[in-house]
User: Fold this.
Amino acid sequence: MTTTTPPTAKPTTVALFCDGSCLGNPGPGGWAALLRSPSSSGPPHEKLVSGGEPDTTNNRMELLAAIEGLHILKRACVVEVFTDSNYVVQGMKSWLAGWKKNGWKASGKPVKNQDLWQRLDDVSARHSVHWQWVRGHAGHVDNERVDVAAREAATRVAAAGRGGAHR
Assistant:
């Protein structure tokens, strides 16, 4: 059950770093999401989650990383999402409204990954989300951390020969 923040309470600001990985495209894939929120005393709270699927694409894993990260939040928050996926950032900032207006069509064709875009739209609506693109593999510590976790998840899926979420 999702709860909302009372109007008098200041919403929590959460940083969400997310990444997806695929061993082959399509192939076994993994996703990872790192959430960081302030603590009233001491270091910030962090939670790292990851999972994967046996036969997927990199774009699907990028979307799933954002979906799963936002889904963890049980109350409305201000969320700064950091991803190295221009696909996700452009989709949420520029393309989504048009897809919805056009019946989930782009250039007359069905939108690829519509199921995940709809899930991301739904889970994002509960929060005030700000989408930020970061350059991948450029030394951004948190982006590198989720990149490693997503690749490890994809490797676990490939080694297991089966999919499913591995958290």
